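Feature request, filed as a ticket because there's no other form

It would be nice if the structure record came with a short human-readable summary line next to the tokens. Right now we just get the raw output. Example of a typical job, pasted below so the devs can see what we mean:
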Amino acid sequence: MTRATLRSHAILGVVALFCLFPVYWLLATSLRRPGDIYSLAPFPWPLTFENYAGAADKADVPGLLINTTFTAVSSTAIQLFIAILSAYGFAMHQFRFKRVLYLAFIATWLIPFQVTMLPNYLLLHQLGLLNTLAGVVLPTMCSVLAVLMLRQHLDSFPKELVAAAKMDGLSSWRTLWQVVVPNLRPALAALSILLFINSWNEYFWPAVVLQQRNAVLQLGLRSFMSAEGNDWGPMMALAAMSCLPVFLLYLAMQRRVVSAFVRSGLK
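Raw output as currently delivered:
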């Protein structure tokens, strides 16, 4: 191993420790005794699950997990479905003003969310979807990032396979789902992980739409904040539990995710 390689590994190790330390401190704080919450000892001892019990007593943890999973999975699935159709249309079909429409579509990515927040809120109010999980999912159905990434993958997709499918009599719809999509699994896997994590961590929009404090995990954390002070122990315990599904998902799909990110150019 050369000196340059060792130096690179050392830098990566320091960066990894810097990134992992907040997660470790969250877990360590959640496992401290209530009287040791403000302790700066790096290793909590004795370990206790009192904070987890306190979080379960004060918040409906199963309900929060179910609601958050529903919004994250629904938003990810709809975004993937719309992205597949949009990218397939832009990449495989020729029509008038195609380039202009694509550029206009991509330009919407440059509009800050705060600009569209008020129109979205008024529309949800007129539809009667405020304070519902559907109101959280509806404005996030289309992801420009997802369309952009899939369009790039489809531009390099072998056009001979599509032509052969048409010669076999497959319609455009069947060509998409029987020929194109199965060959996009690595890209779809990487993209679905990104979309899921983004939706899982979303805080601002659910806080605007949902008036219930205990609707999703991100808002449930506010239950432990008050004017008299923050209840750090149960808050850290609930935060640790909110990280658990994403962590388990990554462990279950680790090999596929790494392979998908490398093959899709995401590093």
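Something like this underneath would help us a lot:
The CA atoms of residues 30 and 237 lie 5 Å apart.
The two ends are 23 Å apart (CA to CA).
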